Structures are given as C-alpha cells and as structure tokens.
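Let us work through a complete example step by step.
Step 1: write down the sequence.
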Amino acid sequence: MSDIYVPGIRSRFNTEQIVEDLMTIERIPRNRVQNNIDTLQLQKGYLQEVGRRVSSLGESARFLFSFQNPFHDRIVQSGDDSVITATANRQASEQTLRFSVKQTAQADRFLSQPLDERMRLEAGTYTFTVGNDEISIPFRGGTLRDFVDILNRRGRDKISASFISVQSGTRSLLIESRETGAGARLGFAGDAKDLALNIGMMQPNPGSEAQRSIPINENTVRGVSNTMINDGVLQVPVQTSASIPLNITVSDNSPLVLRLETRTNVDSNNAVIPGPPPGPSVPSGSVTFGGITIQNEPSSAPTPAWQAPPVPVRNDDMSVLTLAFSDGTSVKLPAISDSGNFVPRQYDLADFARGKTIVSLNVENANTHREVLIGNAEILDPTATSDGLRPVNAVSTARDAIVSMEGLEISRSTNIIDDLIPGVTLNVRGVSERQIDLNVSANIPAVKDAIISFVGNYNRLMAELNILTRRDDSVIDDITYMSSDEASEMRERLGVFSTDSALVTLRNNLQRVITAPYPTHLERELTLLSQIGVSTNADRASGYDPSRLRGYLQINERELDAALETKITAIRELFANDTTGDLLADTGVAFNVDALIRPFSGSAGIISLKANAIDSRIGQDERRLVTIDRQLASKEQELRIQYARMEAAYAQMERMSSSLDNFSQQNRGGR
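Step 2: predict the structure and record it as tokens.
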C-alpha cells in the first residue's frame, strides 16, 4: 500500500523534498548575507554599549569640574539636632559657630471652653487680624463644623481652625494664627470678638497699670548724673551703678515679662591710670614804687616723688542686671552679651519674682573696661492682644525666636533664619542655654561619591574596550564581578573590534591620561591619583596582579578618606585646575578625560558615526536580501512547475501504457 499514488495528494517522486533540497543550495548566498546582517547588528549593539559607557564617564568627569561640582557644596553638622539645625548653599564659608536658643518663635493658638458639638452660630461677619492683616469672613449661620470649614477655606493662609475632643458630646474650638512672631498677634473684631467671649476663648483684659513703659529720665533713675541719660537711654559707666524704680507685684502665675534693650561700649585699652598731681601754684612777678622795681624771686615748693597706683585688675562681668525686692532680697538676671547695637532682651518675671514685689531694676556695672547702656524698657503681658482681650486658654502665644550666636543675641519672627549668616539657613527647633556648635564644612560624602562614580564608569568603559579590542581570553577572567552567564556572553564579543584603530587608541589614551601627573597649586606634592588612594595598585599588600596592566583603577578607601579630610581643595585641582587665571579649567584628570572622550560621544561623535556606517551596510545587505528573496521565490516557483509537468507527463505515459495493455489483451481474447 505504501507505493499507492494518488494524483494531487502524494508525489510519486517526492517532489517537495527534491525542490526543498535544491532551494537549500540556492539559499546559501542569502544565508551569507543574513549572517552578515546579524553580525553587523551585534557590532552596532556593542558600539552603542561603548557609546553609553563613554557618555556615563563623560558625565561623571564633567560633574567633577562643572559649575555644580560637589567640591563647592557645603553641609552643616549640629551638635544637637533637637535644638538647632541648618542648611548651607555653595556661597557659605567653612566655619564653626556656637549658638544657644533662648526661645523659639511661636504663633497665637487659642482654645475655647468645651462646647456642645451641636452648637449653632449666628450669621454675621467674623473679622480676625493677624498683625496688620485683616481677614473678614461672612458667615450665613450654621454649626461649628460649618464655621470651621469656611474659616479654613477663607483664612488666606493666615488663620485656621480645628476641633479638639474633650469628652463625649463636646469639643473645644482651636483658632490659630499661621504666622509666628511677636508682630503677628491674633486679634478678634466684630462678631468674631463676641464669639471669642461667648465660647470662653477670650476674656476682657483688666488693663493693669503694670503693663506700661518704664520711664528712664533724670527724675526716675538714681545713682548716675543727668549727663548719663540721653533720649531715654541710660548710660552706666565702668564700675558704677544705677537704679530704675519698678514697684510692681508679681503673682505666682503672672504672665508679665520685662523687656528692654542693652548695648555695650568696650574699651580694649587698659583702664585709665591717674597722673601725678600738679602741686602748689605760687604766683611770681614784680612790684614798682617811686621808680624802683623789685623783682619777686621764684617760689620753691618741693613735692614728694610720684608713685603711680597699681594697674587695676581687669574685670569682665556680664551679669549687670539685678531685680531688688521689697523684702530686701535681690536676684541677678541672666547675663547680657557685648553688642555695638541695641539688642532686645526679655525676662519672664514669674521666674524671678514669684509672689514678690519688685522695687527696682538695678544696673551694677563692675566692669573695668565696659560701659553698659539700657533703653526701651517696659513691662507687659505678652498674652494680651491689641483688641483689649486676653486668652483664657492660650496653647501658645505669639513670640519671636531669640538666638544667641557667639554671645550676640538676635531675634527673628520665624524659626527659619536665613539672613544671619551668608549662605546658611538656620532652623530653630528647641530651647537650650547650652552652647551648640554648628560646623559648616565641605560636603565630603558628595565629593567621595562623585570620585567613586567617576572611577566606576572609567572601569566599566575600560572593561568594554579591553574585551572588544583584545583577543586574549584572560581579559574576561580579570573581571571578577561577572557571573558565568555574563562571562559567556562577553566571550562572544572578544576581539570583535581588535582591528579598530579608533577604539584601540581610545583605550591606550585613557590609560595614559588617568595615570599622568597633574600639578596642583595648594599641594605641590599632590600630582597623581595614586596619592589619594586611587590607582591601578591601590591595594599594594596583595602583590602583583596582571589585571592591573589592563588599566583598571582601584580605590583605597582609607587613603581617600584621609586625603579628603585634609586636602580637598588640592584634590579639586587634581581633577580640574585653572592654570591661566581665566577662571576656566584647562587641565586635570577629569578635564582631560572629558576632553579625550568628547569626540567619541554625542550624535556626531566617532561612536555614532561608526554605528551609522554599520547601519548603512545593514541597509545595503537588506536591499540585497529583498532581491535575492525575489529571485529565490521565482526559482522555487519554476522548479515546482517543472516537477509538476514531469509528474503530469509521467502520469500521461502511465495512462497510455495502461491503454495499450488493455488493447493488447482485448485483441488476444478475440482470437
């Protein structure tokens, strides 16, 4: 049955296989072209990978000498992040400053009495003030929640409101200013004032006479001459004292504060030592009578030898302010600091005079080289607002931040201070009388990361060039971080561009540039990368390693860290240096590496041009493939037609042979 032939279904002579075998021979030229295209596409991919490596190295090199290079970055380290922190920009100078924080800036935050959460408010215009800004909010009436929602929507980022749950069914309303500083007090007017009084948030201020300015004039101050008082400023000379009457009683929980301004005039010379006394003065002259003149003889008054008094011992005592009480006791206020300008100071009286009557503020200047000036003294209740109200429950009261820097006391309305130190922004976080160091220094971690990135990109490019331009299999074995699969893939690339002079030259020049000396101005002995722990033999203890001949760099992290701590400016010059004085880098490791690889990168670079040339060759071969495929299709069709005709002719011959056989049999049977 296997030799049964069915026309149109089974070929008698296995025509399909014969045609396929013949076409396989015909396709050999096509396969050569296709293999060439595949090879070219692989080479293009390898070149594109080299281009990416070149671009990465160029970016990391330029980062080391560009305008945004990390050598000019600054970081700030605080001795206590809970008290004060800071950030610095590139204009900041490297320095260490000492700070203490006397108070942080706060905003007014007032809390009401517990309220029924179903409470409804009447329609009206609710007016609030924050400093000099006025916010009027029309309200159509509704629940407390409705009022809070509209206040938050229309508060213009000046005020806000929220609820605090006290107990089931009640809530306290919290209204707060969004601005800090003593000049941003929260006030109430119109319907807002009535609301604050009705819900127990505010109460009328009794207007105590203790809230007053302290007059400084010849009628009030005792202990100094009138010439020491000028326009309300008291000047207390060295080793003298003065007394300013207060006469105010301070309760245990009194919110009263004493505010004043101080200034000092320091004479850096020694104290004045009196000279010798002039001695007696006897008049001399003559007298004439009757034409006779008698000349007076000079008087002789011997004086003892002058002995100058001993030089007074220099005394520096900044605790010059004292509160005197009616019971005869006294207490010193915290020390002031030297300042050529008036510095505001504030003291909470309840901390010093709890339950006592303050008789006077005494200025006791025991200094031998410093006079003290006092001005703008007042006693006030900081919780009271300008609208004649005072809070019943003040969660916080608007006040300025007070910071002492190197003994100089400054105040700002916000906890973020950016106008004190050029290039540095302070962030005041907490109170501490302890001195906190802020150290502004170079951003060494960023510089180190940039150098490591540069070395890493250099090594990756060098590995790629070594594999593509060398035929030695040990090149792959030298790269220890590769997996076995990656190593197998790299072996397919080995020596693909071994005859490409451009890539071979790039490889050799990179090795030369990276190991060349680059003199620096600040550290003349620092000229090589190896001197900061970056070299082809950074781990000298490991002995000879042939892989170092391939040009790969190693980093001795300990040596690099030590160099960055002490020679960071010279290291910057090692990577990029200006030798002509035009403020533009013209030499250095990073600069020369970038200059070397720049012709190879970019859309018009050598790598792109080579890839474009390969694209052109691929295009030519693809056009050849189209022609060959058309010819092969025509050839295959021709073969199929020929073999079909052969099959048909053979079938016709079989039919004729069968007819002849039948005819012969019929003739023999007729006989």
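Step 3: interpret the result. The radius of gyration is 49 Å.
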